[in-house]
Design a protein that fits this description.
With 646 residues, this protein is α+β, with helices and mostly antiparallel strands. It has four domains: 104 residues, Killer Toxin P4, Chain A (2-Layer Sandwich), CATH 3.30.430.20; 119 residues, Killer Toxin P4, Chain A; 88 residues, Phosphorylase Kinase, domain 1 (2-Layer Sandwich); 236 residues, Orthogonal Bundle (Transferase(Phosphotransferase), domain 1). The protein contains 15 helices and 25 strands. The strands form seven sheets. The chain has a six-stranded antiparallel β-sheet with strand order 3-9-12-13-11-10, covered by helices on one side. A five-stranded antiparallel β-sheet has the order 4-7-8-6-5. A hairpin with a 3-residue loop joins strand 12 and strand 13. The protein starts with a strand and ends in a 20-residue tail after the last strand.
Length: 646
């Protein structure tokens, strides 16, 4: 037995873990049912032995698991009145059977009271269950309770720390996504595994108390995952009263996970429990993958009711692939329903692409997919409702743009940059959006940006850098020249689109104003001319006041770096995020942007681009990917500290 500062750490339990003390660690024992961590909250009040509160607590805990109809491991109840009322929550790991769950919670009530003999509020965690009680309301409030929090980590480091961290992040992202996909399920739990590049398998579990909404559950889990971001240990767990995560290099849960690391589902959604068929060689694997995401599927009648039969009063907008409607589900959740046009260019392939892609993505600056409907000829996608419409609705309106001060605009630029960094480098696959534009950036009620519309997105493996297509899809003005002219797309194509958006946000001008395209100066030409002539003040939206000159000029500089004609000269998103976050970064001098109209002899006629200004057109033919770039890799070469180019 090891003693540290009076706290006991017996070898049977705690030598495996090094405790990162966030809140006071009390004890850890080796018995089958004792806590790996517990917290007695002295600041929440005390009770005396045999008092009314004490008696109510004993009664409540002794009957907490008496409801035998509960088979999903979550128990919550209250007993008593007024100041002596006691509330309790018990949660078992999602793979635990009913008998073992009840046994774990019944033992924990005895142990927790022994360790916390007179505290009105306490919480304790076993390996497979959690118990909390309090004199305040602790369930059904939708509140994400992040305290107390404890992070326990394995004492051993991973062999390849960087690869391990990336693979663990991908696994946790997939698991969080599957918990979110469970909606209002009684079991907000997912477990699975992923085998890494060094053939080491990482196993993981994430879980929330079912009283949290999907959004609050995801927020809670995101906070827990963030704790582990820079940790290269082989195992760890983050515990809070409303959610927890755990990862190890050995399997510590009961159901058999997917061996590939894909479609990581809770037991109730496991393919082993479904009448799904395996994929054949006829190219229908996507159908099977959608079937395993059955929890995402909503029926058409539900969506008809939610949108008042797709009434015009609920119509949020019309895009190239169909209309988007506001709706409300029976549980009160607000949604946005994208109903694809029956003659839309987006066919089954693009539809499945968007479903499968969005189902795996989790980032605060990406719109969240809630579900889909595939019924007869109807194809619908259901997203979280983002209340403030899209960026173009504000930035190009002479009145509404006043609602976006410089602070809001800079926050939007940073948010979009971080979302693209996630897509390009931090998610499990490298993802190229291919249709990034102002109308595909939605704004929530706090004007936080969320990238939407992944119907044209392409997935690359981690060693792939570019792809090619014979037909072009996208929106004129946002397309990189190598994509518009040669069908070559890469992360640098998205970087180009991002640069156009940055310059639109700073200037309040569209990439090309309405009117005769041949007679109206294009935005990139306008910005470059003023940048060269040192009249950058002309670029800035005149409606802006109280701006940060350094931030504005830095954004213009970043925008021009992004829209350079040679894709190798454009920075990647990690460099862009660093440029936006740090004033100590020396930025290279931008070269002349790519122009599509009038100024270049090899400019592309509008008739050759299969898109419109506000709508996108699909492409499905002859696309390929390669791991070898056609040009040199992007790198920052000679750089200057002057604000303007020489």
């Amino acid at each position: 037995m090891i003693t540290t500062s009076g706290r006991l750490f017996p070898s049977g339990c705690c030598l495996l873990y090094m405790l990162i003390i966030i809140w006071d660690i009390k004890t850890c024992y080796a018995q089958q049912y004792d806590f790996i961590y517990y917290n007695c909250q002295n600041d929440k009040g005390n009770y005396t032995r045999n008092s009314t509160y004490h008696k109510n607590l004993n009664t409540l805990l002794s009957t907490l698991t008496s409801d035998t109809k509960i088979d999903y491991g979550f128990y919550n109840s209250s007993y008593g009145q007024n100041g002596d009322k006691v509330n309790a929550v018990g949660l078992c790991q999602g793979d635990l059977n009913q008998n073992d769950c009840r046994s774990c919670l019944n033992d924990s009530r005895i142990v927790l009271q022994r360790h916390c003999p007179n505290q009105k509020e306490a919480v304790g965690w076993y390996d497979h269950c959690m118990l909390q009680y309090s004199n305040r309301t602790i369930f059904g409030t939708g509140y994400v309770q992040n305290t107390p929090m404890v992070y326990l980590v394995n004492k051993d480091n991973a062999t390849n720390v960087d690869a391990f961290k990336q693979e663990r992040a991908s696994l946790m992202s997939d698991l969080r996504n599957n918990v979110s996909a469970a909606g209002d399920s009684g079991r907000k739990y997912a477990a699975g595994s992923v085998t890494g590049t060094d053939f080491q398998t990482i196993y993981g579990v994430v879980q929330c108390t079912p009283d949290l909404s999907s959004q609050k559950c995801d927020e809670c889990l995101e906070g827990n995952v963030d704790v582990t971001v820079n940790d290269g240990k082989k195992g760890g767990r983050v515990l809070t009263p409303r959610c927890h995560i755990r990862y190890e290099t050995y399997r510590f849960f009961q159901f058999q996970p997917s061996t590939s690391g894909d479609a990581l589902l809770p037991p109730s959604l496991s393919p082993n429990n479904r009448n799904t068929t395996s994929s054949s060689s006829n190219g229908q694997a996507e159908d099977v993958e959608i079937m395993t995401n059955g929890s995402l599927q909503l029926d058409f009648d539900t969506l008809r009711v939610a949108t008042s039969d797709f009434s015009n009063s609920n119509k949020l907008g019309q895009g190239g692939f169909g209309a988007v409607y506001k709706g409300q589900l029976s549980n009160g959740q607000m949604i946005a329903v994208k109903r694809l046009s029956k003659d839309s260019g987006q066919g089954a392939t693009e539809f499945k692409n968007e479903v499968l892609l969005l189902a795996k993505l989790q980032h605060r600056n990406l719109v969240k997919l809630i579900g889909f409907c595939l019924e007869g000829i109807e194809r619908l996608l259901i997203y979280e409702f983002v209340s403030n419409k899209s960026l173009d609705y504000f930035i190009f309106d002479p009145i509404k743009r006043g609602q976006l001060n410089w602070t809001s605009r800079y926050k939007i630029i940073e948010g979009v940059a971080r979302a693209l960094l996630y897509l390009h480098e931090d998610s499990r696959l490298r993802i190229i959006h291919r249709d990034l534009k102002a109308s595909n950036i939605l704004l929530d009620n706090n004007m936080n940006p969320k990238i939407a519309d992944f119907g044209l997105a392409k997935l690359f493996g981690t060693d792939q850098t570019q792809g090619n297509t014979n037909r072009i899809a996208g929106t004129y003005g946002y397309m990189a020249p190598e994509y518009a002219m040669y069908g070559q797309f890469s992360t640098k194509s998205d970087v180009f689109s991002f640069g156009v958006i940055v310059l639109e946000i700073v200037s309040g001008k569209r990439h090309i104003e309405n009117g005769n395209e041949e007679s109206v100066e294009q935005l990139l030409s306008f910005v470059w001319r003023n940048w060269k002539e040192r009249t950058a003040i002309n670029i800035i939206d005149p409606s802006l006041s109280n701006i940060s000159g350094n931030e504005v000029m830095r954004c213009i500089h970043v925008g021009l770096l992004c829209v350079q004609e040679d894709l190798a000269d454009r920075p990647n998103m990690s460099s862009i995020v660093l440029m936006l976050d740090s004033y100590s970064v020396t930025m290279p001098t931008p070269s002349e942007p790519a122009f599509f109209v009038g100024t270049r002899t090899r400019s592309l006629p509008l008739s050759d681009i299969h898109s419109g200004q506000n709508n996108s057109t699909t492409t499905t033919s002859s696309e390929s990917t390669t791991s070898k770039p056609s040009r040199r890799e992007s790198e920052n070469e000679a750089s200057v500290t002057e604000l303007y180019p020489r």
